[in-house]
């Protein structure tokens, strides 16, 4: 955020510079007119005097603002096992260096040490873009401490389903939500502080914050309402998926039922055929065995008859054979 608009009094003398947003405000209120793209002229001496005083106050305030710069931060190896990478990206039409903090482990964080003056009010200013994450696990905090952790301030940004420390800018983007934070603190007796940005189970992109007017094209949104909308959209999507799966399973069930019914009918038909075939086989086998037994019985009867006939013939032959007469000498004579 730079003072790149020159300001002149009614005589054309340069009396200072201001920010584009304040220049637009002066013109809109009628206290100044635009001379060219980078110059405006105040309309009266009273306004010029007031501007000079305000300009001094602005310079003083800006000197006490610590602006986020990605190059000044580094991944805090003491916090979790996540990853952090400095990236050059295009945001709001401009190239800007950001720090991508990727989820991992219990937490991930980046940190830097800032030099301070004693007993002064400061503001740490940064922009953050993040996506929707589960409400019961996601957290992000900023800690500003002095001699050691716990000796300072903690700003709970994301905690549960709430935006606990309210941003000065909260905008909706195509891929998430964009917020600008201004975190106030006092240096007390310390001449330095440690600034730590910590994330738990979420991924975020940390940017330098621009003039608030630079984000006017983005849609304003309440963080808590945005979360509720996202939860509703997820529930609706899951419901649609569930309905689609249910309908598909029902169709599959109907088709499977018809198929199984057809298979059952086919199996019954095959079973009947098999039973008939088996019955026929057994019937034929029984008939064959009966026929074979009949043949065996006939053969046995025939054989018995033949044996009896042979025996009778032998008996007859024995009866008909003449007996030989024996002589005293043991021989027979005819």
Describe the structure.
This protein is α+β, with helices and mostly antiparallel strands. The protein folds into 3 domains: 59 residues, no CATH class; 152 residues, Jelly Rolls; 96 residues. It has 3 helices and 18 strands. The strands form 3 sheets. Strands 5, 7, 8, 10, 14, 15, 17 and 18 form an 8-stranded mixed sheet that branches. The longest helix has 98 residues. 19% of the residues are buried.
List the helices and strands and how they pair.
Layout: E1 5-8, E2 14-18, H1 20-28, E3 32-36, E4 39-42, H2 45-63, E5 65-67, E6 74-75, E7 83-91, E8 94-102, E9 108-115, E10 121-130, E11 139-145, E12 152-159, E13 162-163, E14 169-173, E15 176-186, E16 192-200, E17 204-207, E18 219-220, H3 223-320
Parallel strand pairs: 1-4, 5-10
Antiparallel strand pairs: 1-2, 3-4, 6-9, 7-8, 8-17, 9-16, 10-15, 10-17, 11-12, 11-16, 12-13, 14-15, 14-18
- Average pLDDT for all residues: 76
CATH architecture annotation name of the largest domain: Sandwich
Superfamily (CATH H level) name of the largest domain: Galactose-binding domain-like
Highest CATH level, the class of the largest domain: Mainly Beta
Question: Structural class, judged by helices and strands?
Answer: alpha+beta
Secondary-structure element sequence? EEHEEHEEEEEEEEEEEEEEH
Number of strands: 18
Rg (C-alpha, Å): 53 Å
What profile does the largest beta sheet have? 8 strands, mixed
CATH fold title of the largest domain: Jelly Rolls
Number of domains: 3
| Silhouette | rod-shaped
Spatial separation of the terminal alpha carbons: 168 Å
**SS summary, helix count:** 3
């Amino acid at each position: 955020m730079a003072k790149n608009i020159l300001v002149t009094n009614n005589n054309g003398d340069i009396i200072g510079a201001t920010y584009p947003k304040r220049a637009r405000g002066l013109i809109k209120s009628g206290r100044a007119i635009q001379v060219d793209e980078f110059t405006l002229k105040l309309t009266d001496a009273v306004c010029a005097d007031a501007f000079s005083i305000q300009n001094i106050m602005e310079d003083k305030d800006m000197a006490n603002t610590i602006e986020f710069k990605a190059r000044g931060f580094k991944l805090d190896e003491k916090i979790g096992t996540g990853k952090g990478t400095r990236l050059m990206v295009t945001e709001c039409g401009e190239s800007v260096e950001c720090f991508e903090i990727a989820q991992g482990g219990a937490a991930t964080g980046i940190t830097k040490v800032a030099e301070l003056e004693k007993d002064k009010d400061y503001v740490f200013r940064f922009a953050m873009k993040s996506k929707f994450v589960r409400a019961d696990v996601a957290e992000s905090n900023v800690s500003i401490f002095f001699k050691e952790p716990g000796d300072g301030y903690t700003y709970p940004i994301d905690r549960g389903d709430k935006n606990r420390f309210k941003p000065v800018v909260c905008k909706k983007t195509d891929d998430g939500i964009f917020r600008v934070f201004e975190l106030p603190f006092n240096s007390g007796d310390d001449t330095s502080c440690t600034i730590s940005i910590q994330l738990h189970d979420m991924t975020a992109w940390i940017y330098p914050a621009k003039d608030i007017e630079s984000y006017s094209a983005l849609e304003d949104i309440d963080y808590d309402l945005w979360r509720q909308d996202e939860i509703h959209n997820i529930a609706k999507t899951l419901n649609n998926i569930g309905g689609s799966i249910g309908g598909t399973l029902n169709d599959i069930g109907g088709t499977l039922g018809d198929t199984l019914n057809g298979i059952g009918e086919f199996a019954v038909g095959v079973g009947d055929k098999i039973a008939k075939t088996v019955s026929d086989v057994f019937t034929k086998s029984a008939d064959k065995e009966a026929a074979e037994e009949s043949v065996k019985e006939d053969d046995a009867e025939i054989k018995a008859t033949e044996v009896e006939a042979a025996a009778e013939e032998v008996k007859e032959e024995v009866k008909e054979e003449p007996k030989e007469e024996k002589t005293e000498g043991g021989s027979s004579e005819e």
